[in-house]
Write a structure and sequence with these properties.
The protein is built from 7 helices and 4 strands; from the N terminus they run αββββαααααα. By secondary structure, the chain is mainly alpha-helical. The strands form 2 sheets. It has a two-stranded antiparallel sheet with strand order 1-4. The two termini are about 30 Å apart.
Length: about 170
């Protein structure tokens, strides 16, 4: 079934595709807190797990995907975000501070195309969810819960549109 919000998001992304700035990095593809192993004493990351989506791509992709998690509520099923949690108590910075620190460490003055990368992260997750739902519909899903994942696509697209228009 068509999802009008995904169509709107696709159009928005097509109209705002940034010029190629030549930046290329090893991109994890699923960069989020629950794919890290932390040292309990130093609170430093000692390992990053789950590399099957890794590829060469733009370095802002992983940053935007991580920040998307800050905007995601618990949508049920396999998509659980960090919105609604007391992130400050957990030591998780807000998005503005996270991006600011990234820019400081990379020597950047800011990110003009930040809404694009954030919107693309939502689109990508929605497309993955739609693929999982389609496999469930065809009877070849890897999980009994897969059929529920399709219901998350429209809320993801709605969050994407709200995020890009607020940025």
């Amino acid at each position: 079934n068509p999802i009008p919000e995904m169509d709107q998001l696709i159009s928005w992304l097509e109209e705002r595709l940034p010029d190629d700035d030549g930046r290329v990095a090893l991109v994890h593809g699923d960069y989020r807190l629950d794919n890290f192993i932390w040292d309990a004493d130093s609170q430093r990351i000692v390992a990053v797990l789950d590399w099957e989506l890794s590829t060469l791509g733009h370095p802002f992709a992983d940053l935007a995907y991580q920040c998307m998690q800050l905007r995601l509520p618990d949508l049920g099923g396999s998509i659980v975000g960090l919105q609604g949690l007391d992130r400050q108590a957990l030591g998780i910075p807000d998005e503005a501070r996270y991006v600011e620190r990234y820019c400081e460490r990379r020597g950047l003055d800011g990110m003009d195309d930040w809404p694009f990368y954030l919107g693309f992260s939502f689109f990508r997750l929605g497309a993955i969810a739609q693929g999982v739902a389609k496999r469930a519909q065809q009877g070849n899903a890897s999980s009994a819960e897969a059929s529920k994942v399709g219901a998350m696509v429209q809320p993801l697209a709605q969050l994407a549109l709200a995020s890009i228009h607020a940025a």
